[in-house]
Amino acid sequence: MAKTTIDITGLASARGTRSSLGERIGELPNVASQRTQQLRARIDGAKAVTSVCPYCAVGCSTLAYVDDSGKLLDVEGNPDSPINAGHLCPKGSAIFGMTVNDRRWTTVRYRAPFATEWEEKPLAWALERIAARVKETRDATFVRERDGKRVNHTLGIASLGGATFGIEENYLLGKLMHSLGVVAIENQARI
Amino acid sequence: MATGFFTDATLCIGCKACEVACKQWNELPSDGFEFTGNSYDNTSQLSGTTWRHVDFVERESFDESGLKTSWSMVSDVCKHCTNAGCLEACPTGAIVRNEFGSVFVQPDICNGCGYCVVSCPFGVIDLIEAVGRGDDAKKYGLATLHDDRLNDRKTAVQATGGVAGKCSLCFDRQRVGMVPACAKACPTESIQFGEIEELHERAKRRVETLQERGVEARLYGADDIGGGIGALNAFFLLTESPEAYNLPVEPVLPSTRQTMGYAAAAAAALTLATIGWAIFRGDA
Amino acid sequence: MPGLGTSFGRGGATVWLPDLENADCILIQGSNFAEAHPVAFRFVMKAKERGAVIVHVDPRFTRTSAVADLYAPIRSGTDIAFLGGIINYVLQNERYFREYVAAYTNAASIVTEDFVDTEDLDGMFSGWNDETKSYDTSSWSFERNDDGTLRRDETLEHPRCVLNVLRRHFARYTPEMVERVCGTPQKEFLKIAELLARNSGRDRTTAFAYAVGWTQHTTGVQFVRTAAILQLLLGNIGRPGGGIMALRGHADIQGATDVPTLYDLLPGYLPMPSALRDEGNLDRYVAQNTKATGWWANTPKYVVSLLKAFYGDAATAENDFCYGYLPQLVGDHSVLPTTFAMKDGTVKGYFVIGQNPGASGQNAELVSSAMERLDWLVNIDFFDNETVSFWRREGADPTKIGTEVFFLPGATVLEKDGTMTQTSRVLQWHDKAIEPIGDSKSDLWYFYDLGKRLKALYADSQDPKDRPILDLAWEYDHEDERERAAGEPSALRVLRELNGFTVADGKQVAGFADLAADGSTACGCWIYSGVCPDDTTNHARGRIADARSSPGWGWAWPANRRTLYNRASADPAGNPWSERKKYLWWDAQKREWTGYDVPDFPKGKDPATPARPGASGIDAHSGADPFIMNLDGRGQLFVAGALADAPMPAHYEPLQSVIENPLYAQQSNPLLHEWKRDDNRYNRSVDPDYPYVLTTYRITEMSGIMTRYIPWLAELQPEAFCEIDPELAVEKGIANGSYVTISTALGEMEARALVSGRMQPLRIGKGQRVHQIGIPYNYGRMVGFARGDSPGDLIALSMDPNVSIHEAKSLTCSIRPGRRAARSAGSIEAPVPTAQQRAYGAGSAHGIDAGERR
Questions:
Q1: Which of A14, B9, C257, C726 is deepest in the core (most CB within 10 A)?
Q2: Is the pTM of this model over 0.80?
Q3: Chain C within 8 Å of B8 (Cβ-Cβ)?
């Protein structure tokens, strides 16, 4: 493949500080490799999906760029947002690294009682076991009345967390927990 | 059209979004995890894999109202000099000036000789160590990238290792009309990207505004900075002296120094000759 | 957020973030705005460029202070004294916005004769019961006319009118006193007081911004109350460039309060039924929680619609709409008492989702040792963390820990769709960008799946206790066939349920005005009603922005109003207070409210409408009462009875303080809750062994587990550090960058010392020199590229009386050079001085019983 000279638009010489290419010691002609010629932003033409930054409550809008195979290419601020106008803080700029990260645990880990190590387990196995344990604990700790008053609750199960996931998820968690009789439901907010 | 950065220290809140956005876009690894104790600066300087770097300058002073604390920050970057030492020194043709007037390292051409490193008047460009998998990957946090990404679409760094690295002014983004990652991310628009002439206008207006408010503001590199370098395509508005941010007050292009060196040598030779002649005369 | 709720009517920030740009002055206090919310801070920078004055009051000189026009230091935990000082300045110098105060606040209401102030009881209010350690708040109330309306003195001259009660209450908060308590030089304090006064009124507005620096205290709610009083006096609420910006922490922390995973609330700020209030049946519940006037007259509609959303067809008028299915509270079931209950063996199973109390919790060792008592722990997260790995923490012996632990891999925000509610109450939908990696699933998926499994497990049960599960309306299968096949629930279906629908035809309701109390409507969260108002619209997905309030961008509760109480941006007659501060006004031609926002007021209610005593709901209010949620439609300078500890804020020292309260004999909040146990040891107050103020915070580059494994962030702040002033460093022989050990009676941690002049000792009391030590709350010692000890090891649990929030911002400690000793998991239970020991019964009903009111 032939090498071509990049159009330098005569900028430097227009300022009068440089005469012509190759005149100075050590300087070779400005030649662009094939890679350089073809260089394009990897998200050019990629699908942009509107998302929201998961870190703080400012609620910066983001665009997640995805290629045709469904692979994540990049995450940036959404310029249309009246809140962030395309900008992001360092954490928001690192959303890509939170999702695509080989330190992330993407399988179920299980630690049996008294075990000293984690083991990987199939998802379905864990879900079945968790449901059974929830039922077992609920049935053993459910209280219908306290001091003559109907309470229909269990103090044997508690739940913590909510501020890092969505309102639909908070709703389902609350709806399910309340219906199990769980009252000790809490998240990062207390005020 | 030449494009560049105007980085305004008076708008910087030191958040380092520029550093992260740059690394994310350019798929650069971390430089390691070392606590420096130097204010909030733990990346310390620009390097082959840190293309934006925020300087933190803490000062205390006393005046009639008591102790005054100040903490100023500014994001440093490759200056994309009009006459670039790295480009001049590069023997392989890997470093080129592109159609946006920026100085660009072609990683597929670069052989890692390092001549550019010593030729940068600002100490910006640096060699990237060969980083790959295994311990290196862990050390540098390349772990962030999934293995399939490493195989599929190796970045320049991962593909070649041992090349020179520095800010490309997001050449790939500019090619498709996008703003460089750091300027886009910067929450307070301390980093502004645009056509140089327009940025110059903006910067001059900004200095006037600040001076009206009694802020000591000065531009660094908007005009010819001397030493044969010319103007900088990435220039700064500072409120402290340049040294405070590790920016040289009188940077010199090595080739200019070389010319000056020849001149000085010639002058010295002449002096010696004159002295010799004088001695000779005296002896006579 | 009852500090805001009791003052204005709703527990949410009153401000649309971009509107900060329109402020003439911004007071940032209790917040490190630039570091914790950098992108929102761009509006502060814009305001500054427009000429606004930015003031930062903080124990540390931070990146916020660096760009502020004025920085003033303050001793952590003394903000009531500081703001009380400004209230005093404003009242003494008659600098309040008189027309606004007279018309829109309860300044003219007459406080009952029975009320006795802190001035007369040395820091206590009337009604204290030493046996129950609580106040009978009945004397904190107003005189009434014969028709039941509040007695008022519009001249504001009555000695017992609220304005004059306030005047007397805050009279001792002089600039000298502020300096003694806060350590803020009088000169700086006065400069700030004058700036706020000068930048408020008809033509100018001042905004306040705060965050957890004001809330994580044993007097947290009263910090916010003090700010609310001041902003009402200055006439800044409901106006452009004014208001109180509550900067909330996590991405959906507002949403998780609105649709609460909080023990004491149901969606839309309906209280959770409580056996303590005898709310055993729906009638009792409705009677307790419905107000005659103001918006809360509508409670029955909202609770019945919620029950219909929960239990569908099973909920009928005959069975109280299944109200009895809801469990009843029997005490404080918040996280701190629950942690003790866990340690004491009551809690057997624990879900921890996207939270890491093993590192970021207070008394993290207590949390970890409590989890040892669990039968099982289920954790959903992205990374290994100190909570799920508590059994292998430093010093622990896994072979003695019987807890069964499940880690379920969570999907990140990019891998699921759904909605989060940001800090200005704006709901923003996000689309799924990629499939979850590996076995990861969304939280929605896990909850939906668990519900389905439990329904199946209980399918054959005849036990009445299992009816709620069997009758639970639980149909959220995805609309898309492929997603449905993967078991994926539809977040949109859930959001549409939150909006509400008509039961008969399943059609979406247009808003909460359409909800009914007869079971004909179902609604999961009444304040969100209107977000999906018809079958095809999802306003949370709206992406049309404009230069002002961007009504087309996302959707704000309630009813897409951006600036709350915006009726107050016009004068009582309905005209803008000034051209410059024009926002919402009465259009006499069209006979409706118009302007740059959706009116937070009935759109066609004429400003001249008189109040109608005896009418219900907001019909009782006049056309000039902007605070529609409140009984009297006005901003509450004096709060009658709604808060446990004070109708007007009084400065109390933190539980663990370096000084005796200079203001009153009462040292700390008389109602604060503490647990004096071996595993929760406090420093004594004014203890020479712990002479330094300790404060905690987060830094820009880190959050917690969501950042510590990202190398790009970890390299920016790779290790736990603490910030100390040079004078203390010299005194202790601490070199910059070296390891130090910080300790309290509870435990110790190590960190790298960052010695900086940004930290400065303060002079307080009668000349006492106080050093403050700052420690970031971002790290954990077990996992991550960035790691280190957490101040969670130093902080014993204590709790405020209103919202059960912990005190994590103002504590005491000591410091020494060098690294800490190796930890043993049992070390925390080492013997303590007998004076502090007290036996508590194990296995009590709940954690609250294991503590004591002081």
A1: C257
A2: yes
A3: no
